Amino acid sequence: NIVVKGMHGEDFSRSSSNLEDTLSHLNSGGGSVASRAEEIRTFIESLPDKYGNPLLTFKSKVHKAENSWDPDIILIGDGALEFQLSYCNLGDKSAEFEFAFMFAKLLVEREGLPELSPDESNTRRHMRWELMETVLGAYFLAHEYGGGFEGTDCCILHHTAYAWGDCNEASGVETGHGDPEQRECAAIYGVNLATRPHLKHAILDPKMIQVLFDNYFEDILAKDPSMCYHDPNHNMEPKVMPCTQSSCPMI
């Protein structure tokens, strides 16, 4: 059960208590909530468009329910949608695009990642987590039973912010997302899984996608051309296992 909500900067201008309530929920370091709220209001009101400035909501996030009866929540920021609309020219597909990647993030948080080896570094594990989300999001968007993205849509998908990374494993940053080409490669691999003739009419269980991804994770990190190339005419086969009833569970 998933609830999708919008995240609007204007919400903080409609009620004087909204900002204080949010800060009280987040505040773990002490200090005056009221004075901090006033500082934030002063800053926001100095911005172009004030509370409507898209940078304030240039983010989407997920909240995994802590029990079985509460829904998971996906928050989609107005600024994130505006980026898809204005910069990526995704038009009415913007919300679908944003939702797919947040749903992928929620799935990975729900299912977790199997341990590849006891000595896997935190940096490598976090990078695998992030790239798996990219693969899943791209798979959902490109599949004919999902977003049905094709042609220029897939090119946009490859080159948006989701295909960009902040660092690679060598940087030593534990929250690394992979470098730009690695993230783009992961997105292309997800598209290929969704569009290959022997796979596109099936809906792969996310656990199977996880197995495929883990099998070729090193190839994605190495930017292997056979993993990182999207050919809409399917002349170049990616490294995926043949889809059979036994190897690829349907959902």
Considering the chains and any ligands shown, give keywords for the structure:
251 residues; mainly alpha; 2 domains; 10 helices; disordered C terminus
Summarize the structure in words.
- The chain has 251 residues and is mainly α.
- The protein is 46% helix and 6% strand.
- It is built from ten helices and three strands.
- A three-stranded mixed beta sheet has the order 1-3-2.
- It is globular.
- The two termini are 16 Å apart.
Radius of gyration: 20 Å
Q: Indicate how many domains the architecture comprises.
A: 2
Total beta strands: 3
- Would you list the SSEs in sequence order as H and E? EHHHEEHHHHHHH
Based on secondary structure, the structural category is mainly alpha
Distance between the termini: 16 Å
Uncertain stretches of 5 or more adjacent residues:
235-251
Strand order within the widest beta sheet: 1-3-2
Main pleated sheet:
3 strands, mixed
Helix content estimate: 40-55%
**What portion of the residues fall into strands of 2 or more residues?**
5-15%
By DSSP (H or I, 4+ residues per run), the number of helices equals 10
Globally, the shape reads globular
* Mean of all residue-level pLDDT scores: 75
